[in-house]
Amino acid sequence: MQMKNIIHTIFHFLIWFNTMANNLISTTFIVVLFSLVLAGKSQTFSTNLPRSTLRLGRQNLTRLHFFFHDVVGGPNATAIRVAAAPITNTSSTGFGAVVMMDNLLTVGPEPNSTGVGRAQGMYASADLNNMSFMMVQNYVFDEERFNGSTLSILGRNPISSPMREFPVVGGTGVFRFARGYAEARTFFFSATNGDAIVEYNVYVLH
């Protein structure tokens, strides 16, 4: 009788253990599956958002007018050649020359006029037959209204043309989602050292 009770107890224990094991496996499976679902949601590559999420309502059209000071000569140069091609020095257009710049932007044409920011980036001679630069630059503004905001410009600059036009390809800060164009006109050029002052009108939707 005692042996029968022992066998009965062991039998019920095995049933209980098997149930608990199955429950544990099921619980573990559910937890793992739930974690995978959450991970999938948090790592979604693409999500459609309403325009209101980033306050993309009616956009502003802003005109910016300033002067760009390209100083390439002397101890205070702000535009310096950093690279050249084997044919740069013999090319009629200086083809292959790459210039890095951190040029002052001012309200008026005088170098001591009120500053509104810097033009940082580079330009390179990219035409074998005509004087034309590829412009890659960020206008970094420190004027009160636009302080810390930037506009990005990428385009072709045929410097002998009276007026050149470059696309605005983006911006940051106040100018997030910016698009527009910039008009450039040479205000002053020194044939002696290559320094130039360029007048800019920039029209931006933002």
UniProtKB/TrEMBL annotation:
A cellular component annotation (GO) from this entry: apoplast
GO BP: phenylpropanoid biosynthetic process
Location(s), subcellular: Secreted, Extracellular space, Apoplast
Gene3D superfamilies linked to this entry: Allene oxide cyclase-like
The keyword Secreted appears for this protein: yes
UniProtKB keywords: Apoplast, Secreted
Protein family according to the UniProt entry: Belongs to the plant dirigent protein family.
Function per UniProt: Dirigent proteins impart stereoselectivity on the phenoxy radical-coupling reaction, yielding optically active lignans from two molecules of coniferyl alcohol in the biosynthesis of lignans, flavonolignans, and alkaloids and thus plays a central role in plant secondary metabolism.
Quaternary structure (record): Homodimer.
Official protein name in the record: Dirigent protein
Organism: Helianthus annuus (Common sunflower)
